[in-house]
Amino acid sequence: MQDVNLDSRKATPPAATVLGRLAVPAGLLAAVAGAFAYVGTVDPNEPGHYPACPLLQYTGIYCPGCGGLRSAHAVVHGDFLAALQDNAAAVVGYALFAVVWTVWVVRAARGRPFRLELGSAHLWTVGALLLVFTVVRNLPFGGWLHP
Description:
By secondary structure, the chain is mostly helical. The chain contains 7 helices and no strands.
């Protein structure tokens, strides 16, 4: 009969195991950092680099994403006030991504599962907030939300 050391289960996992658990969050961060680096390098304020928003181009209505690239460009360059002015909803999204990603990394490093379970109430709330944001930024008094 083989002796089983019960204390070995409590030991710190080898570094390879921890690195393996962090591979997916690190890959996602690399992709997002690459996208932000590209937008930070190729200025969306100069015409011709990115396609125009079709909704804005054909109707003159700002969608919830209008100004998102300019906002990301401003974040990369540390101009957070300009980022908020270009697209406040995008800045909130960037901050939420950072918080969720950090929680994911901490839980993965500790060997705990991470699940982001959004119910229908959460999704309806996000949708309603984006709809209100879109409507307000297209009304005359919402001009301060124009990109």
